[in-house]
């Protein structure tokens, strides 16, 4: 009986160890502390858990008071996808801006400073960077989260990001393996399918992952995508051929394999999160990410019990579960040593970082985010010499529906930055309408602007016909309008001045506002 109880307890603790759940609130709920005491080895943080760096530091200290080797993860890509600065917008541009500049040293500096700030708050695993090659310009979920559409560029910046982040003592997690860039479906809503051959897959999509593995990335996140050339039946997250055969055996990755959010519809609507989690572990995943939408004790207990039952029923080998739990604990041990074995969050000691890297860069990186955002701006003049905006303008922001990864709680655009530079600026946001209503929407903009100079802000205008139609109508009536594109820069430049920021982070808005007002010359 004693041995049976010990075996049950071991299985339960291993099942808890492989979960990375989220939770509600800015302090740890009692149920979460209970589960940590019972064996939960990781938690995931989202924007709902964060208000200030000081609050985040206190939250992580509260979690680690329960167990010091807890793995605290976050989805902090910077740029459009920020949790650390969810309230005001990121101090760092995202991958697309960095790829546009194409200075790997700059990317490493940005990642290092971001990692330093995360480490100072007690975070030690970042579900970033995106290593996806954005081969499909109509991709609804990757876009500016990618370094670009070129595999070589994406690979070198992925490596730089991994080096910078891990030099700060924060584990990197490259995603979304084996590549989510050539999709036209958001896996939060349905199952994407990529029909490419092995030659394209290896030359394009796998290249950044292969080089990130060689650079020492501590973790890889799987994608909920169907790749028939590799597995016609199972999406990557649930595929032994992809996670074990390709990632482990062929590419030689020996770190932590993390799933993308299991509550995403590509998995939950087809398999359910319990069965999906068991299949993912059996396929070779080590950690189950859940909590972006499901963030309660019942979910954790359901998954724990489903995993234990799968072992007892023979659907999940016990040694596979034990191996997965051991990998989670090994990464937790690395992060503990990286932040100083007996230190509080934010300790300067760095151990076990990326190969050949130790400690900080020794450079002053305080303003590196704004420096990077400025370098990423591309300005295309109109037919007439540009007259900077000096009187309060009218900022019309054409806002598409945000994808779930980005979220709609983080502000974006240039209105706030322009208001700070030109007091009296007026602004309004215009959201999705039918294409046949776009001209009427443009009429609303023109009426609201009256005689003010218009600054039209768009995001991925090439993907949204209503936005393109409304913008053209505004420009036809007011050719002195300035256009700021804050998404993927694919459409023909238009306006008295066209400014492409290559991302919608707060610092990207600041960089654009500097050009609009003439604080930075349009020729620079």
Using DSSP, what is the number of strands? 14
- Give the fraction of residues assigned to helices: 25-40%
Radius of gyration based on Cα positions: 23 Å
Outline the low-pLDDT stretches: 342-362
Architecture overview:
With 524 residues, the chain is α/β, with parallel strands linked by helices. 40% of the residues lie in helices and 11% in strands. It has helices at residues 2-17, 30-38, 53-64, 95-101, 104-120, 151-167, 198-205, 207-214, 240-250, 265-268, 273-283, 297-312, 318-338, 368-376, 415-421, 438-449, 465-477, 506-516, and strands at 19-20, 42-45, 71-74, 125-126, 171-177, 219-222, 256-258, 288-289, 378-381, 394-399, 426-431, 454-458, 482-485, 497-500. A six-stranded parallel β-sheet has the order 2-3-4-5-6-7. A six-stranded mixed β-sheet has the order 9-14-13-12-10-11, sandwiched between helices. Helix 1 packs across helix 12 (297-312), helix 1 (2-17) crosses helix 13 (318-338) and helix 4 packs across helix 14. The protein is globular, with a radius of gyration of 23 Å. The N and C termini lie far apart (76 Å). Mean pLDDT is 91; it is low at 342-362.
């Amino acid at each position: 009986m004693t041995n049976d109880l010990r075996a049950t307890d071991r299985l339960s603790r291993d099942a808890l160890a492989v979960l990375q759940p989220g939770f509600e609130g800015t302090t740890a709920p009692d149920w979460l502390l209970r589960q940590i005491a019972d064996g939960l080895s990781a938690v995931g943080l989202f924007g709902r858990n964060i208000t200030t760096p000081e609050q985040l530091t206190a939250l992580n200290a509260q979690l680690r008071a329960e167990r010091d080797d807890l793995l605290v993860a976050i989805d902090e890509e910077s740029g459009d996808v920020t949790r650390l600065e969810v309230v005001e917008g990121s101090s760092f541009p995202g991958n697309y801006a960095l790829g546009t500049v194409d200075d790997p040293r700059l990317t490493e500096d940005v990642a290092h400073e971001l990692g330093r700030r995360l480490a100072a708050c007690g975070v030690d695993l970042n579900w970033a960077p995106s290593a996806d090659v954005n081969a499909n310009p109509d991709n609804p979920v990757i876009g500016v989260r990618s370094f670009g559409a070129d595999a070589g560029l994406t690979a070198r910046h992925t490596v730089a990001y991994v080096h910078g982040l891990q030099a700060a003592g924060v584990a990197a997690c490259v995603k979304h393996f084996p590549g989510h860039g050539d999709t036209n479906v958001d896996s939060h809503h349905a199952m994407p399918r990529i029909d490419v051959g092995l030659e394209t897959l290896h030359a394009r999509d796998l290249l950044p992952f292969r080089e990130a593995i060689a650079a020492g990335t501590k973790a890889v996140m799987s994608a909920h995508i169907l790749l028939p050339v590799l597995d016609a039946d199972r999406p990557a997250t649930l595929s032994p051929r992809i996670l074990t055969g390709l990632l482990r055996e062929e590419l030689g990755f020996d770190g932590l394999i993390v799933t993308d959010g299991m509550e995403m519809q590509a998995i939950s609507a087809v398999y359910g999160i319990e069965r999906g989690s068991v299949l993912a572990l059996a396929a070779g995943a080590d950690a189950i990410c859940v909590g972006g939408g499901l963030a309660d004790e019942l979910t954790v207990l359901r998954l724990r019990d489903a995993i234990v039952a799968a072992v007892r029923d023979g659907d999940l080998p016990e040694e596979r579960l034990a191996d997965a739990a051991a990998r989670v604990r090994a990464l937790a041990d690395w992060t503990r040593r990286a932040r100083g074995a007996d230190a509080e969050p934010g300790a300067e000691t760095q151990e076990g970082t990326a190969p050949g890297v130790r400690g900080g860069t020794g450079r002053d990186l305080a303003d590196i985010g704004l420096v990077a955002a400025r370098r990423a701006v591309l300005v295309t003049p109109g037919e007439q010499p540009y007259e900077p905006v000096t009187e309060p303008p009218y900022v019309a922001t054409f806002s598409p529906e945000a994808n779930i990864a980005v979220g709609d709680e983080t502000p974006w655009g240039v209105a706030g930055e322009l208001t700070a530079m030109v007091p009296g600026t007026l602004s309004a946001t215009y959201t999705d309408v039918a294409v046949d209503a776009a001209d009427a929407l443009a009429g609303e903009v023109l009426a609201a602007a009256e005689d003010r100079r218009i600054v039209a802000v768009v995001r991925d205008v090439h993907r949204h016909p209503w936005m393109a139609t409304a913008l053209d109508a505004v420009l036809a009536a007011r050719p002195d309008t300035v256009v700021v594109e804050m998404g993927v820069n694919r459409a023909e430049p238009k306006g008295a001045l066209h400014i492409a920021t290559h991302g919608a982070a707060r610092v990207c808005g600041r960089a654009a506002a500097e050009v609009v007002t003439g604080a930075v010359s349009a020729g620079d």
